[in-house]
Write a structure and sequence with these properties.
Chain lengths: ~450, ~300
């Protein structure tokens, strides 16, 4: 008993770590899409914002790439499903001694690195183009056409595997019966075999679409001077990045999640139907059916939750404006920069600040009555708008530094500030305030 | 059987329309998409880098120059071998092996759990959560790891904050980010073949071994693993091939000084502008992958059909 509890704890722990590894990076990446920081990161969390989605929507290169990707994916779906189906149907009819060879050849694109497939496609069509003296704007040098061909090389093999597994359950007697009853070959194919294969065609098409849409290794060679979503993404990720890529990732993750859960929910429903055969058929009350459907279907509940969360986010985004928060953060950053300021620019200024420095932030951080004089002094120098923001930013900026000397600080504060006012011109005063909040 | 009768029987069986479609599609696939492009690439890799006007001219002869370049470097090279490119090649292969072993170690327990322990809803949930990250774009997954491991990334911020280290650790330069990202990318391809294999294992065998007093590690070593060998081989082969042939993750997560072999190929095609040399490198990559597959098949005595899922 003891060892089994230990084992289950161990398994649980392992599962948590494993799925942490699996989801942690994706979750963090999704979070960066909502941080207003210019650089995709989580740790100095600045403001919640949806502006990166706007940036994303206005990114023309990305939109062009996306359009091309969709065109290519469409082409690949058609070509791969046709080829994969033919490949699977032929497999059973190849002369048995040739069959392993045939299988090896058509399955090999899956095992060949995508880079190699892309290169060979590019070179082959380039050679063909040279052979026919084709012009550079002809189909032989068209990035989209070449990408469709290059990707279909291996995606057809995926589709073929899907069809093979479905065909293994096909009863050839059906075909023979149709032929005996006088159907032509084409009719038999269309009326008997194709309907049997519909589910497989569906899943092969989805598989082909996804595989094409996310392919990079082959595409990067065959696409030549065009661009797809993945090549645009690659150049964006490698050079200058901002969180709009993360917001794209959020969209893709959300679509994937919804797709996967919906698929699971549908499958579950099918399963339930089979399990409780007549119950589902006879249940007349829609509500009753809905309830039973939901209770037996965690995936469906999850899907609805995701949906509600999505709606909530959109609503929140339309209501909420991060501008105030961003102004605060910018001010805080300015303060942060100015902290180092005096040390670098004038050692003299740095020395002068030293004794007075602790006074200012501690005052503003502690009791309001103590800080009043201080505020007044600042008020002479800053314009009112800046003052508010400055007050807002300062406490959080120095949160970790010890704020024990509240009373002393407040006492010294106003003379200190006025001294500054004498020494520096108003512009520099800001800097000294920044230095203060550092110490 | 002569080809004409074979063809006639084929068309008799399928009718002209369907038969024509089947034959045309498969012929196009095998010739125009698989065999001829590979042969063209092989042919191309034995040629000099000529401008289009000279292709087919008297200077267009076969040469080993591209392969000797990979091994010995340019003629003026002071070293006896092309140290830079060869070490990139060696490091790529070694790293791919490392990623494969890493993936196997983390995936085997999950596959076993999924196949033998988990039931019903839990199993479906696990499968679902395995599939979802896999369909997120390869580049975005690499990007996620860049955020995680970057100098101002989450891990660095965390370990600096808790005081484990003073300075941010350069995970990118140490290639840790790369290995983690590559391993992450191919988890699913390791789990599913192993899962498929273990699922068909009769539970009674495990219980019999347990009743006879075998410790858990010996049950795995002597019963589960030998039974799942085709799946393990298939998973390892897939992961090795894909990580050796990966381009996106090394481009994004690789350190500035460490290249992946595919990046060399990419450079010859793009910035280098020497396609024949790039093809030669690609052929070398392809050949080493084929050798690896054959080696695995020989070593673990499985057939290609089993590897292809």
């Amino acid at each position: 008993m003891k060892s089994s509890t230990f084992l289950s704890i161990f398994i649980g722990l392992y599962l948590i770590i494993f799925f942490g590894y699996l989801f942690g990076p994706l979750i963090l990446m999704s979070m960066t899409a909502f941080n207003s920081s210019e650089f995709p990161r989580v740790s100095p969390w600045e403001c919640f914002t949806l502006e990166w989605f706007d940036v994303l929507a206005r990114d023309d290169a990305l939109i062009t790439g996306l359009t091309n990707s969709l065109i290519i994916a469409g082409g690949v779906v058609v070509l791969s499903v046709l080829i994969g189906l033919a490949g699977a149907l032929i497999l059973t009819q190849v002369w048995p001694r040739l069959r392993p060879w045939y299988y090896t050849i058509v399955i090999s694109p899956i095992l060949v690195p995508g880079v190699v497939l892309g290169i060979s496609t590019l070179i082959f069509w380039d050679r063909l183009g040279t052979m026919f003296d084709a012009r550079y704007d002809s189909v032989f040098y068209d990035g989209i056409f070449l990408t469709i061909i290059g990707q279909s090389t291996f995606i057809s093999a995926y589709c073929m595997l899907v069809f093979i597994s479905r065909l293994q359950r096909f009863d050839p007697a059906l075909e023979e019966a149709a032929l005996d009853l006088g159907a032509t070959h084409t009719q038999t194919f269309r009326k008997i075999l194709l309907p049997f294969l519909y589910p497989a065609i569906g899943s092969a098409a989805v598989l082909a679409f996804l595989a094409s849409f996310e392919n990079y290794n082959t595409t990067v060679f065959t696409v030549i001077d065009q661009s797809t979503l993945t090549t645009v993404l690659a150049s964006k990720v490698r050079y200058g990045i901002n969180p709009s890529i993360s917001s794209l990732a959020v969209i893709i993750v959300a679509i994937t999640l919804v797709g996967a859960i919906a698929h699971e929910a549908l499958r579950r429903r099918e399963q339930l139907k089979i399990e409780r055969g007549e119950i589902t058929d006879s249940s007349s009350a829609a509500a009753n059916k809905m309830q039973g459907w939901l209770s037996g279907n965690p995936a469906m509940i999850l899907l609805m939750l995701v949906f509600v969360a999505g709606l909530g986010t959109v609503w929140f985004g339309s209501q909420y404006s991060p501008n105030q928060c961003k102004v605060d953060v910018r001010l805080q950053k300015e303060l942060l920069q100015q902290r180092q300021g005096p040390d670098i620019f004038s050692p003299q200024g740095g020395e002068q600040t030293q004794p007075q420095a602790p006074a200012i932030p501690d005052g503003s951080g502690s009791g309001a009555s103590d800080t009043n004089p201080g505020r007044g002094t600042f008020g002479d120098v800053f314009d009112p708008g800046n003052l508010e923001e400055g007050e807002g930013a300062a406490p959080s900026g120095e949160g970790s530094s010890g704020g024990g000397s509240g009373d002393d600080g407040a006492a010294v504060q106003s003379p200190g500030a006025s001294t500054f006012g004498d020494v520096f011109n108003p512009g520099n005063l800001e800097e000294s305030a920044g230095t203060g909040s550092q110490e | 059987m002569n080809p004409v009768t074979v063809l006639r029987k084929f068309f008799d069986r399928h009718g002209l329309f369907v038969g024509g479609y089947l034959l045309a599609a498969v012929t196009f696939w095998m010739l125009m998409m698989i065999i001829l492009p590979q042969l063209t690439m092989l042919d191309f890799s034995f040629r000099d880098n000529l401008p289009p006007s000279k292709v087919g001219g008297p200077e267009d002869v076969y040469t080993m120059a591209n392969y000797t370049f990979l091994v010995f470097g340019s003629p003026g090279n002071p070293e006896p071998f092309n140290v830079v490119d060869l070490s990139v090649f060696g490091r790529t292969i070694l790293a791919a092996v490392f990623v494969t072993v890493f993936d196997f170690m983390i995936c085997y327990p999950i596959a076993y759990f999924l196949a033998q322990v988990a039931r019903g809803g839990v199993a479906r949930l696990v499968v679902l959560s395995l599939v979802v990250p896999f369909w997120v774009n390869e580049l975005l997954r690499a990007f996620a790891f860049k955020i995680l491991f970057g100098a101002s990334g989450v891990i660095n911020t965390f370990i600096v904050t808790i005081g484990l280290v003073d300075q941010p650790v350069d995970f990118i330069k140490a290639d840790i980010a790369l290995y983690a990202g590559l391993g992450y990318a191919y988890i699913l391809l390791m789990i599913f073949p192993i899962y498929n294999a273990i699922e068909s294992l009769d539970k009674n065998q495990i219980e019999a071994a347990r009743d006879l007093g075998s410790p858990w590690w010996r049950i795995h070593w002597r019963i589960v693993m030998p039974f799942a060998k085709p799946g393990i081989t298939s998973g390892c082969t897939m992961v090795f091939m894909l990580s050796a042939g990966a381009l996106a993750a090394p481009q994004i997560l690789g350190g500035p000084s460490s290249l992946w072999f595919t990046q060399l190929i990419y450079q010859w095609f793009n910035t280098g502008g020497n396609w024949p040399r790039g093809s030669a490198y690609a052929i070398v990559l392809l050949a080493s992958c084929i050798i690896f597959v054959l080696l695995m098949m020989r070593l673990f005595k499985v057939k290609l059909g089993e590897i292809g899922r």
